Amino acid sequence: MTLTGTAEAGAAKAPPVPPPGRAGGRASAARRAWRTFSPYAYLAPFFTLFAAFGLFPLLYTAYVSLYRVELQTPGDLQWRGFGNYASIFGDEFFWTALRNTFTIGVLSTVPQLAMALGLAHLLNYKLRGRTFIRTAMLLPYATSVAAATLVFAQLFGRDFGLINYVLGLVGISPVDWQTGTVASQIAVSSIVIWRWTGYNALIYLAGMQSIPSELYEAAEVDGASRWRQFVHVTLPGLRPTIVFTVVVSTIGATQLFGEPLLFEGSISGGISHQYQTLGLYMYEQGWGFFHLGRAAAIAWVMFVVIVLLVGVNALLARRRSRKEAGR
């Protein structure tokens, strides 16, 4: 075989080479497709978990709230429409739980955020052992709700509690912290304050450290005192952070469950329901009286209450920002 014949045979056996432009176009199209769909691929796990454990339970709860469902026979559904909602709105204990949720929320949120703001302001200065103090402030947040509530229940004991012992030293008669309406709500609120003050203080501290130091230097040059710097520099710079903590604390107060449940160990929130919250009332209806449909209706009422409270907070914050922008 000649050299020319060998070359022709090798050329016949070689696979055809695609034009350079077609291969480059396919690669470019693949890259464009990946750039378009890759963000959705990264977000797909979150939305999958949210749909399975967030959206589906929410919609299914709304569905169940329209039926009569008992815990013993969860598969037996009887259509009631808005009958479950009418039943809870006609129950005086629902309005008691709603009122208790509001009062405990105010008693726990306002002092908690005020104390957290003051602690963050102190920690914003150069102090010895700041790292240790910041770590110690997170310990109540890391403590179990059950452990903290059981300890506070002993502290607020009527006969042998430490709180009544200290009050007796200053001549104040013992207080029945578990029977009195105001006293029991103060006791439950103190648990929430103790657990969440340090957490919010660190959030405020992070917000304070993001405020430019030039603003404080300019205020000091103008002769502003520490208090005026706090009012006119720190608070305006912390406004988004304060709005965030108020919203989160409002949601937490509306869903309060563990502290009132373990304070006395009763799902009724005391003898006369004096500190029963909406979360505890929902648990009582669903797992105490076995009315799952009514418990689902209460859950949706709580959801609407949270949305309304968050909306009011956002509206007030927006109006405040507009007023200050118009000055």
Automatic annotation (TrEMBL):
It comes from the Bacteria. It is found in: Cell membrane. Pfam families: BPD_transp_1 (PF00528). CDD domains: TM_PBP2 (cd06261). The keyword Protease does not apply. Residues 1-25 are annotated as: Disordered. It is a multi-pass membrane protein. PROSITE patterns: ABC_TM1. Keywords: Cell membrane, Membrane, Transmembrane, Transmembrane helix, Transport. Its main location: membrane. Residues 98-311 form the ABC transmembrane type-1 domain. InterPro entries: ABC_transporter_permease, MetI-like, MetI-like_sf. The chain crosses the membrane at residues 40-63, 102-123, 135-156, 297-317. Residues 1-14 have a biased composition (Low complexity). GO terms for cellular component: plasma membrane. GO terms for biological process: transmembrane transport. Belongs to the binding-protein-dependent transport system permease family. This is Sugar ABC transporter permease. It comes from Streptomyces corynorhini.
